[in-house]
Amino acid sequence: MEIKLKYDTPKEWANQVLENLDEFLQDHADAERKVSTMCMSIVAKYPDRSKIIAELTQTAVEELLHFKQVYELMQKRGLTLNGKFNQDTYLKGILPHVRTSRDGRFLDRLIIASIAEMRGVERFKLVGEAAEEEDIKKFYTNLYQQEKAHVDLFLKMATHYFSEEEIKERLEELLIIEGEVTSKLPWRPAIH
Ligand SMILES: [Fe+2]
Ligand SMILES: [Fe+2]
What we know:
By secondary structure, this protein is mostly helical. 72% of the residues lie in helices and 0% in strands.
């Protein structure tokens, strides 16, 4: 299933990131930690969805590994985690649209996870392309490749429980919402 974002982040966005790279790394480390937690919270809330528990757990491990890698990069640059958590204005804009029924909520969360991964893919790629420092360029180019696999993964999980038609229809609606939310957010040195 293909995901085409409705709003393309302008290239110039990456310049602002590179000018505030330390701040970006703080946010990025948090984002990786949070997506790992999100995977395991789906496991906690939907323990009966046994077809996807192994994959969710594996994805949580991979995201935690990304956290470890970002943290190592921070350490190399002499940075420590500052414990300041930016308000997640991105998710705050999207989550009110999540349906409240058990199944609706389940599907929406998986779709939003895919879209958020896709947004990450788009932006890691931009950072990788714009970076001049070799280790930063390598890191983000590599990460972009890895996150690409996660986009499909969450959608595939959904196909165990919902028809392709239903997924596609809801995907389109949530893509429109995500595009609107993202286009209105002020630029920050943050992945979302
Ligand atoms: Fe990740
Ligand atoms: Fe990911």
